[in-house]
Amino acid sequence: MNDSGLLAQSLALPCGVVIPNRIGKSATQEGLGTPLGHASPLNITLYRRWSEGGAGLLITGDVMVDYTHRERPGNIVIDDNGGMAELREWAAAGQIAGNQLWMQINQPGRQTPADILEHPMAPSANMAGLPAEGFSMPRAMTGDEIRDLIDRFANVAAIARDTGFSGVQLHAAHGFMASSFLSPLCNTREDEWGGSLENRARFLIESLRAIRRAVGDDFPVSVKMNAADFHKGGFDMDQSMAVIEMLNAEKLDLLEVSGGNYDAPVMIGAMGDNKPLARKKAERTLRREAYFMEYARRARPLAKMPLMITGGFRTLDAMGGALAENATDIIGLARPFCASTDFPGKLLRGEITEVPMVEETLLLDRSAYIGKLDDREFNLMESNMQLAWMYVQLTNLGKGEGIDWDLTLENAPQAFAELENARETARRKARGEQLEPTA
């Protein structure tokens, strides 16, 4: 069977639900919600376009379970009974072509920006792995707060089911709350929620069990977890493998694996080291694909549940190879969906052999920063600019427009900031909050 044929195969999950093909859209933090934190017409249009594009599985941008802990102005938040009609419309639009649409559930914890909450909840009160700018010292959660958050995850999962989403995913990667419980650097608790890996994994396991009780056994439940957090003494690949074995005992339908956090964001293409940057397209792509394939080959013999590996697949050859050797069950992609809504169908029909590569085509001039930034700093800056560019494009796609290819990488951060500032102003007005004075 050729590579397109492998991608076109369906996948039956342990709960009995069938994903129609092996292309999965990983969560993208769209930030397109209304000022009140509900799904907006932009969410609905964007997900309809993605559904029509042909992917078998769409996972939403993370939905917050607590309004006090958010990432950005456009977050969708479910912490009351508001916005149910909008959720139903979003769910229907995102499944119009017969694919699966799963709501990703999250609480950012210590990665809640300081301008949203000065001292956010976290497993422990430390700044390990967080940039000094934009974040503040978190406070350690009480046992009651931990239990309350687990209940919130379960409640939002039930709401997702009741409003028409076909599955849910708990975000336990990228340094957010569930991920930080796993990290020995972020979690220095000495009670039942910290210390040994078994204790550090307790929050994830208890959250997963609560979600399963809330949605029943025939509804897909997924977890997104780090391959590693790429910090010395942090959550590493060996610990990740041990957690997979713990998850084998749970009723889990799909484990998605990505990697990194704000300080070492592999998930956005910055490898988090000082190695000289590969500036040639093929070399950069092969480096990313090779890293996550190494993880997949270690995880596959251990994992009893289906796997979705997300982290740099860009070529049909690599995707087909990963499926052929059973290293992964779903090919996870995120960035390409920010530059095209219809590439999955083209892959499945064999019309293209690689997906949109924003990280390969939108590049800064490295020579202009020699002596100013080391390789890691430059790589991180370039990746963040690319991320800003993609966030702007998600807004365009949500409006029903095309990609603005005239937007340069250098101008993307300002364009993104203007969108975010406008959303924050609208949010404050809608909630009757005091507006920030303009400069």
CATH topology: TIM Barrel
State the end-to-end distance: 60 Å
How much helix, percentage-wise, in residues? 25-40%
Radius of gyration: 20 Å
CATH hierarchy class name: Alpha Beta
Number of domains: 1
State the low-pLDDT regions, or none.
267-279
Question: What would you say the CATH architecture is?
Answer: Alpha-Beta Barrel
Outline the biggest β-sheet. 8 strands, parallel, barrel
Question: Can you describe what's shown?
Answer:
This protein is of the alpha/beta class and 439 residues long. It has one domain: TIM Barrel, CATH 3.20.20.70. Helix content is 38%, strand content 11%. It has 14 helices and 13 strands. The strands form three sheets. It has an eight-stranded parallel barrel with strand order 3-4-6-9-10-11-12-13, surrounded by five helices. Strands 1-2 form a two-stranded antiparallel ribbon. Strands 7-8 form a two-stranded parallel sheet. Helix 10 links the parallel strand 12 and strand 13. Helix 4 packs parallel to helix 7 and helix 13 packs across helix 14. The longest helix is centred in the C-terminal third of the chain and has 24 residues. The radius of gyration is 20 Å and the shape is globular. The chain starts with a helix and ends in an 8-residue tail after the last helix.
